[in-house]
Amino acid sequence: MKLGIDLGGTNIRFGLVRDGRVAEGFSVPSFPKEATLEETLGYLTANIRKLVAGRPFEGIGIGVPSVVDCEKGIVYDTVNIPCWKEVHLGEILRAEFGVPVQVNNDANCFTLGAYHYFGCELPSFVGMTLGTGVGTGVIVDGRLFSGRRTGVGELGCIPWEDADLETTCCSKFFLRHGTTGREAAEKAAAGDPAAGALWAEYGRNLGRMVSVAMYAYDPDMIVFGGGIAASWPLFQDDLWTYLHENHQYGKAVSDLRIDVLTGDDVGTVGAAYLVSQ
Known about the structure:
The protein is an alpha/beta fold.
C-alpha cells in the first residue's frame, strides 16, 4: 500500500491506497493559520502514524496547494499555511518514516487521480479543479508534465481584463456578483432567471479557459473537479457553445471529451500514485 495525502485548505485527507482505491483513511481539519512550522509538522506526522498504525507501506505522496520543487521535495509559499514559506517536506517525512516521499502540487494530484480513475491511456489529459481558485494539471504520454516548479498549467494566472482568468472561473466570480456558487446553484435549480444567467456567463468564462488549455496542450480529455464542478449541468451548454463559436479548430472541439469527477478521494489517490511516477 501507498499513503496518499491531500492537503486542502479546509481539510487534510489521509488514505492508504491499494489498487487505485482508498482502502482505509480519514480527514482532519487543516492547520490553523496561526500554527507554527513545528506544530504543523507535528500534526501531520501524528496523523500519518495514526493511520498506518505500525503497518508497512511503500511510500508517501502528498499534494500541496503550493509551488513545489518536486526533485527536492521542497514546498514554497503554501496557500493557507502562512508558516510554510520554504519547507523541505520530502526530506522531513523521509527521515521520519524511512520510505520514499514524493511531493507535488494538489491540482496535479487531482489530475493524476482522475487520469487513473477513467482508465485513461490518452496522449494528452488535463485536470482542472474549480473552487476557491482554479488549479490545472497536465499529463502527457501517461506522466505528469509539471515543469521546474510544478507551474505548468497555471492558466488561471494569465491576465484578463482587470484581473486574471482564474477570477472569472472560481468562487471569486460569484462573490463579485454578491453571491456564492452554492446559492447561485440553488436559485438556478429553482428557476431563478438571474441565477441562470450568472451560470451561463460562468460557462462562457470557463469555456475561454478551456480554449486556452486546448491551444496550449491539445488534450484528448479534460476533467473538472472541485466544488463548482458539481454544478456542471448548469453551465455545460454555455461552455460548449463558447467553444464551438470561438475556438479556431472545430475538429479539436468535436473530438474533445469533457467529464466531471467530484469524489473526495481523487486527490488522495492521485497523491499515492506519485510514488510510482
